[in-house]
Amino acid sequence: MPGTLARAPGLPPLTDDFSQPYWDAARQGTLLIQRCRTCRRYQFYPRAHCAHCFADDPEWTPASGRGRIHTWTVIRRTPNAEFAADCPYVLAIIELDEGPRMTARIVGESDGIACDRRVRAVFARAGETAVLPDFCLDRG
Ligand SMILES: [Zn+2]
Predict the structure, then answer these.
(1) Is the pTM of this model over 0.70?
(2) Which helix (H) or strand (E) holds 43?
(3) Potential cystine with 135: which of 9, 43, 115, 119 (Cβ 3.0-4.6 Å)?
(4) Measured in angstroms, how far is the CA atom of residue 61 from the centroid of ligand 1?
(5) With bands split at pLDDT 50, 70 and 90, how would you rate the model's confidence at 3?
(6) Span 100-109, pLDDT tens digits
């Protein structure tokens, strides 16, 4: 799928008090994930408790923003009018270097997208003020 993938602003994410630190950090170009204060393991998506040991003390911590493509697909049609202009776009599951996996878009140069390719986080506007983490191929 050669070409350059871009994101239209689309819909803003739904935020709440619990996720607000994540969105605030994304606006500053930092990807936050959670780390358990008890067992020290990382997790994503954010939860009020640790997914590994169930301690109720996960804390936000900056992630490296680097990882690899676990799997990916091309979205060619969408029922959501807000994303129609972006089609086709690439949706992927990224395995962060810290371990957790997250769903995100691949943007930028699309030539060479494949499982296990290294990627790095980039940040794009979503809606009027929000910013979402996307990933691009890490060619460095
Ligand atoms: Zn834990």
Answers:
(1) yes
(2) strand 42-43
(3) 119
(4) 14
(5) confident
(6) 999 999 999 8
Q: What are phi and psi of 27, to 5 degrees?
A: -60, -25
> Ligand 1 centre and the CA of 138: distance in Å?
30
Distance 10 CA to ligand 1 centre (A): 35
Q: Choose among 61, 87, 70, 78: nearest CA to 7.
A: 87
Residue located via tokens 């930028």? 108
Q: How confident is the model over 48-57, as pLDDT tens digits? A: 999 999 999 8
Which of 108, 94, 80 shows the shortest CA–CA distance to 7? 108
Ligand 1 center–CA 98 separation, angstroms: 14
How close is the Cα of 38 to the center of ligand 1, in Å? 5
User: Are 134 and 124 in contact, with CB atoms under 8 Å apart?
Assistant: yes
Distance from Cα 114 to the centre of ligand 1, integer Å: 32
Backbone angles phi, psi at 9, to 5 degrees: -55, -35
